[in-house]
């Protein structure tokens, strides 16, 4: 693992920003402020999530369609196959194609809350690899898929999970975006394991700027992301001090991305949570500068 460069002159990396579709007018305003702030950084694409079980289908579509109409950005629509027939999923994909959207982030999705485990829809795409193959039949989409440096929480084992990632790539995906992680070594080891398994497409690190440590710690337990002890120490005593928390979060994420950059990573995906400030600052540290209109 390379150490942090003191005066790195790395090439400006490719960026992507992830948003979620807003539920209220106030949140809509917040999202669009965020989009307008990040737009001049000319990301490779921006993506919009699909709520659990497709619950935000219309809102995701509306947001993506507005990105096409009103911005210079290239949108990617997240699409899950849980709880829907193949025909229903294909219809959603076709609507995207007709709206000019050419990039899909293809995911299985999670079982609805309260259900013991995931069961494929009887007429549905069972797993994300099946969804990728189905989407390719609808149109020649660019397809990104999910990857898990710390292994998907319900995977049989790490090797099985890696073979699943390979199936998604073999079915037509050309990029994997990782679940967020805090232990950089784990991600770098995962890149080696993926390469050894014959996966040669970019595996883009998903970066989550930690604006609320308590919430992130809770969520991480559900999605299988380890929260190292040093992080607990870093945010200790800051629960009621959002300003300091924010600065600590920026410093922590800056260190993470610079370490990744020093190790040759040249593409980054930001989980913005519809707030621009931390993502913008970290992108700036990586070398991104606004493009003049
Ligand atoms: P898959 O790749 O299908 O894998 C799911 C699990 O099944 C893994 O454990 C895998 O090893 C196992 N598996 C795969 N194939 C088989 C098989 N044939 N037999 C047995 N086991 C198998 N969720 C949303 O609801 N909306 C979103 O917008 C969204 N965006 C995301 C974006 C990113 C970048 C990431 C990392 C996750 C996102 N998620 C989203 C969460 C995702 O839906 C969940 O993590 C889900 O549990 C797995 O989705 P997947 O596409 O990785 O599934």
Automatic annotation (TrEMBL):
Pathway: Amino-acid biosynthesis; L-methionine biosynthesis via de novo pathway; One-carbon metabolism; tetrahydrofolate interconversion
Enzyme nomenclature, EC number: 1.5.1.54
Broad EC category: oxidoreductase
Cofactor(s) required, per the database record: FAD
Oxidoreductase as UniProt keyword: yes
GO MF term (any one): methylenetetrahydrofolate reductase [NAD(P)H] activity
InterPro entries, sorted: FAD-linked_oxidoreductase-like (IPR029041), Mehydrof_redctse-like (IPR003171), MTHF_reductase_bac (IPR004620)
Keyword Metal-binding: no
The family this protein is said to belong to: Belongs to the methylenetetrahydrofolate reductase family.
Annotated protein name in UniProt: Methylenetetrahydrofolate reductase
Organism of derivation: Roseomonas haemaphysalidis
